[in-house]
Amino acid sequence: MKKNVLIIILTLSLFGCISGKNQMSEIVSKVYIGMPISDFNKVVHKKRLVVMRKDVTIYKVERQVWYDSDGSNADYKYFYFVDNLLSHLDEGERAVDYRIQIDQR
């Protein structure tokens, strides 16, 4: 009996943790285009400031579960603010994502 209870508790605790992708979906559902930075800061507590200029601010938000040591279930998004309002969000661009275009003459 004790063994069954332990197995049930262990199973529920493992499946109770939502993945990084699900955590990010929850965050994205709470933000909207045109949202002020002050409201964004109330909704998203863990974030990293990537760029801060006079008219542009960019935050990177990452979510990863504790048992995901290699980051394969992690998710991240960049949130772009222009004049203190959210203008768009995306997954950013890495150097390997760029395409080289050669003009043919």
Going by helix content, strand content and strand pairing, the class is alpha+beta
Overall mean confidence score, pLDDT: 75
Ranges with pLDDT <50 over ≥5 residues? none
> What is the global morphology?
elongated
CATH class: Alpha Beta
Helical residue percent band:
25-40%
Order of helices and strands: HHHEEEE
- State Rg: 19 Å
Q: Main sheet? A: 4 strands, antiparallel
Distance separating the two termini: 78 Å
Strand order of the largest sheet: 1-2-3-4
CATH architecture: 2-Layer Sandwich
CATH domain topology = Beta-lactamase Inhibitory Protein, Chain:B, domain 1
- By DSSP (H or I, 4+ residues per run), the number of helices equals 3
Counting structural domains, the number is 1
Name the beta content range: 25-35%
Task: Give me some keywords for this one.
105 residues; alpha+beta; Beta-lactamase Inhibitory Protein, Chain:B, domain 1; 4-stranded antiparallel sheet; elongated
Q: How would you sum up this structure, described in words?
A:
With 105 residues, the chain is α+β, with helices and mostly antiparallel strands. It has one domain: Beta-lactamase Inhibitory Protein, Chain:B, domain 1. 31% of the residues lie in helices and 26% in strands. The protein is built from 3 helices and 4 strands, in the order H-H-H-E-E-E-E. A 4-stranded antiparallel beta sheet has the order 1-2-3-4. A hairpin with a 2-residue loop joins strand 3 (75-82) and strand 4 (85-90). The protein is elongated. It starts with a helix and ends in a 15-residue tail after the last strand.
